[in-house]
Write a structure and sequence with these properties.
By secondary structure, the chain is α+β, with helices and mostly antiparallel strands. The chain has one domain: Hotdog Thioesterase (Thiol Ester Dehydrase, Chain A, Roll), CATH 3.10.129. It contains 3 helices and 8 strands.
Length: 143
């Protein structure tokens, strides 16, 4: 299957974050490669639940955003877009302070679907906090 790229970059994706949910969450893209996007964010009081721990929804949202950004690094030829079909996240640990690094990697890149995994880690220790998987449906123009 021919793969093309929209030539996205760290700068393009960080610009795309501005004024949108990724920017509000403090997501900073650090790496963009074909089939891989990495970002980080700082744990802040507004991202912490009443329990004192990082909100699960923050982790899930950032993992989903990075996987979606990853699709743009490995477009199948002729594709015009994509949509998320399924997401799953398993939480192993959490933080109350510090920074989080999330690495999204393509597991499967077919003509009609892509499957992406994201590892969520404590930046200071490298300890795995969550694993995320999503399935993306690749869209094509109607003939």
């Amino acid at each position: 299957m021919p793969i093309t790229s929209n030539h996205t970059s760290v700068e393009d994706l960080n610009r795309a974050n501005e004024g949108k949910l990724p920017g509000h969450l403090g997501l900073v893209i650090t790496t963009v490669e074909p089939g891989r996007v990495v970002g980080r964010f700082q744990v802040r009081p507004d991202l912490v639940a009443h329990t004192g721990f990082l909100l699960a929804g923050t982790v899930l949202s950032i993992a989903d955003i990075l996987c979606a950004y990853g699709v743009s690094t490995v477009w199948p030829a002729g594709a015009s877009g994509f949509t998320t079909a399924e997401v799953k996240c398993n939480f192993i640990g959490t933080l109350t302070e510090g920074a989080v690094v999330v690495s999204a990697t393509m597991l499967h890149g077919g003509r009609t679907t892509q499957i992406w995994d994201a590892a969520v880690e404590d930046e200071a220790t490298g300890r795995l906090m969550a694993v995320f998987r999503c399935t993306q449906i690749i869209l094509y123009p109607k003939a």
